[in-house]
Amino acid sequence: MADLLNKVGEILPKELGKTPQKIGEAEGGVSFADLLKSSFEETNVMQEEGEKAATDIATGTVKDLHQAAIALGKAESGMKLMLEIRNKAVNAYREIIRTQM
């Protein structure tokens, strides 16, 4: 059995032994964690702009209603996207846990 596992290890490409972060760094790219973090930060900025636009509309101090509506739409779309990413990640985690048992 141990010989069989050793042979499988010889067949697998060397990149499979690397973590995704190491592969991205070796190719000069950005790691998945950094990409995810920047996406969260960008969504947070859109949420803050949307909240400011909603406050401006509510208080009547809005200068351009069209731009305020666009900011609210971007904030809503960004939040929906982040929720879907979170749901996919949780589902993937649950699937991995289920397959390990």
Write a compact overview of the structure shown.
The chain is mostly helical and 101 residues long. Helices cover 80% and strands 0% of the residues. α3 (32-59) runs antiparallel to α4 (65-100).
Counted beta strands: 0
Largest sheet: none
Radius of gyration: 22 Å
Low-pLDDT windows of residues: 1-9
Mean of all residue-level pLDDT scores = 80
Share of helix, binned: over 70%
Give the distance, in angstroms, between the N- and C-terminal Cα atoms.
21 Å
Oligomeric nature of the chains: single chain
SS content category: mainly alpha
Count of helical stretches: 4
Which geometry do the CA atoms define?
A: elongated
Q: What fraction of residues sit in β-strands?
A: under 5%
The sequence of SSEs as H and E is HHHH
If you had to describe this structure to a student in words, what would you say it looks like?
With 101 residues, the protein is mostly helical. The protein is 80% helix and 0% strand. The chain has four helices and no strands. Helix 3 packs antiparallel against helix 4. The longest helix is centred in the last third of the chain and has 36 residues. The N terminus is likely disordered.
